[in-house]
Structure formats: C-alpha cells, structure tokens
Automatic annotation (TrEMBL):
Pfam family, one: DUF2848
SUPFAM superfamilies xref list: FAH
Record's protein name: DUF2848 domain-containing protein
Single annotated GO MF: catalytic activity
Record lineage: Bacteria, Bacillati, Actinomycetota, Actinomycetes, Mycobacteriales
Length: 227
C-alpha cells in the first residue's frame, strides 16, 4: 500500500492510504473531438477503447509523490492531469490535486491499460478541498512543461469531463470510499514538441486566488538488461 500526504492551503495535512487507483482515458468534454483523436491513434496502431470515456484500474502502489520515475527505454512520456483523492464516502470529502500519468508509448500499441501500469502516476504534495473550488472548477488551468521551460500542454479543467461526472461513476461502482484515487485523463499536446523528454512538470492554477499546485520529476533510464 502507498500512503500519500497532502498539504492544504490552511497548512493542515491529510494522509490517505491508496487502495484503488484509476486512470480515466479519452475523457475530453468534447467527445466528438475525442473520437477524432481515437481515429488518429488507430493509424499508429494503438487499439481503440471499447467504450468512451474509458477507465483503467492501475496498481495502487503506482500512485506516488516522487521526483524521479525510472523507465526502461526512451519512448515514455507524461500526461498533464488532475486527480481526485477520496477521503470519505461522500462527494463533500474529496481533495483535488495535480498529477502526471507517465506512460510507456511502445507498450501502448499493445494495450493502453498495460502501458499505464508500466510507470507511476506522479501526484503533487499540495491539494485543495474540492468543495472550496467547486464554483470555479472550469477556470482552473492545467499546464505542462518538458525539459525545463518547453511548453507541451496548456488548457483548463473545462477541457475535460468534470470531477462531478467521475464522482458519479465512482458512486455507481461502490468506489466512492476512502483510499480511491482517480486520475482525470489528459488534454492535447502541442504539435511539434518532443514528448520523449528527460523531465516533466505539471501545474494546476486557480486564477481567482493565484494559488498553484505542481508536480515535477525526471525520467531516469534503467541499466540495460542482461539476457
């Protein structure tokens, strides 16, 4: 089991043991655009999901607050996302934080679920209570940079299915309980930027307050195998 600790704006902390980790996929709010993206991926050999939006169970230990992700080769990359961290059994007891879903792109052509289980979901150390920002959720921006200051993703939470949608899914599946963490799915990458970078940084920003939450890490190549 993995324990995650989050610092809230008032300086208090919440620690939760992750029992269920879920990665949303193809979760753009404009599902027609999502379908167009699926068609593009199909041309690259990446299998289409049977249902959109999708939701992939991930090994709970892969929810990590780390500054290093160990990778097996050079074709892995992150994805800018937000995360819901469930503290109780109601929608009023949920944290929102930033996340970066590191994914094995070579494995993705065989199975999206396999590719997402090949590396951690990196989460921020800070969080907001979802109820505190619910009235302006779509205004919160989501931005990612690679290799320092190269912008690769830029959008807002309005580009993705809203937290209340996924809280409904969790409730239907009896997963709205302490220890569940759901990662949102990602926004489009800026064309022409090399996603196979050595480092990733993702930021959530609340324009109303200027407050930000970020996570950042380096991708470190493992030694070459023998045999």
């Amino acid at each position: 089991m993995t324990d995650l600790t989050f610092t809230l704006p008032d300086g208090s902390t919440e620690t939760v043991t992750v029992t269920t980790l879920l990665n949303a996929g193809y979760a753009g709010r404009d599902q027609a655009e999502v379908q167009s993206h699926i068609d593009e991926l199909a041309e690259l050999g990446i299998p289409a999901p049977q249902t959109i939006p999708a939701m992939y169970p991930i090994s709970p230990y892969l929810a990590q607050q780390t500054d290093r992700v160990d990778v097996q080769h050079g074709r892995t990359s992150g994805e800018a996302e937000w995360a819901l961290v469930v503290l109780g059994d109601t929608a009023d007891d949920v944290l929102l934080t930033v996340a970066c879903d590191h994914t094995d792109r070579d494995l993705e052509v065989h199975s999206v679920a396999w590719s997402k289980n090949a590396a951690p979901d990196v989460l921020g150390h800070d969080a907001w209570r979802l109820t505190d920002i619910a009235d302006r959720i779509d205004e919160i921006t989501l931005t990612a940079w690679v290799d320092g200051d190269t912008l690769i993703q830029q959008g807002s939470m309005a580009d993705l299915l809203a937290p209340h949608y996924w809280l409904g899914v969790l409730k239907e599946r009896d997963l709205l309980r302490r220890g569940t963490v759901l990662i949102s799915g990602t926004i489009s990458m800026i064309p022409g930027v090399d996603q196979f970078a050595d480092s990733w940084r993702v930021e959530l920003k609340d324009p109303a307050t200027g407050n930000t939450i970020d996570c950042a890490y380096r991708a470190e190549r493992m030694p070459q195998p023998i045999g």
